[in-house]
Amino acid sequence: QVQLVESGGGVVQPGGSLRLSCEGSGFSFRTSAMTWLRRAPGKVIEWVASISSGGFDTSTSDSVKGRFTISRYNPNKRVYLQMNDLKPEDAGVYYCSTGGSQTWTEGSRGQGTQVIVSS
Fold first, then answer.
1. pLDDT in tens, 73-83
2. How far is CA 91 from CA 51, 74, 84, 114, in A?
3. Distance between CA atoms of 82 and 2, rounded to whole angstroms?
């Protein structure tokens, strides 16, 4: 079965950086677009960024554009989210999902990793 395991979350001060990682198994990782999502406290889940199966096409939400970068390394079945210049509104639980920007709602999701942005 599909398994996605996120890691890399933690506590960071405003302006700081974190790199999230997600390892996939149980499906054809190299042929699957992948997506990062987040859920802020008390809010609905939000799309953050997606990457094509080969890693050549990426898209990010306007709220994180220029600060977050999605990437992947297919040989080790991992997708990453580099987050720079973190703001308090970036706090929440971050999930990786199979699927792209238009199809992640039908995909599988991991358990998430928590990001806290606080001084």
1. 999 999 999 99
2. 22, 28, 13, 8
3. 24
